[in-house]
Amino acid sequence: MNVYGTDYPTPDGTCIRDYVHVLDLAQAHLLALESREVGSFNVGSGSGYSVHEIVRMAKQVTGRSIDARPAPRRPGDPPRLISDSTAARAQLGWRPQHDNIRDIIESAWSWRQRHPDGYAR
């Protein structure tokens, strides 16, 4: 797995991103469809984790090694992207139910173990 950029102005040099559980994202879509509100909404946990933090946590959850190789930055990648879900919270009443990154990774790993071929039949 390539880690694109290890020289960003972040604590460990890798990009920081906001991660949201797929069930929380689906719930936000349902609330938006059912709402009379018009507009676009950012949806996320509001917390950021670096690529290295995610890799470390994934190793702990899966018990597997992950070959994370440094690679050059991708053009245009900002050091930090953290969602501001204020509008989704206020206008849709949306709140993430899965905001613990370890729980999100454990859930994804559990799904992957049950579906090793993804959605393939």
Structure keywords:
globular, three-stranded mixed sheet, UDP-galactose 4-epimerase, domain 1, 121 residues
Task: Give a verbal description of the structure.
There is one protein chain. It contains four helices and five strands. With 121 residues, it is an alpha/beta fold. The chain has a single domain, classed as Alpha-Beta Complex (UDP-galactose 4-epimerase, domain 1). It is globular and about 45 Å long.
Q: In total, how many domains does the architecture comprise?
A: 1
What do we call the CATH homologous superfamily? Answer: UDP-galactose 4-epimerase, domain 1
Give me the CATH fold name: UDP-galactose 4-epimerase, domain 1
- Reading off the top of the CATH hierarchy, the class is best stated as Alpha Beta
Derived structural class: alpha/beta
Taken in chain order, the helices and strands follow as EEHEHEEHH
Distance separating the two termini: 26 Å
Tally the beta strands.
5
What spatial order of strands do you see in the largest sheet? 3-2-5
Sequence stretches where pLDDT stays below 50 over 5 or more residues = none
CATH architecture: Alpha-Beta Complex
Shape: globular
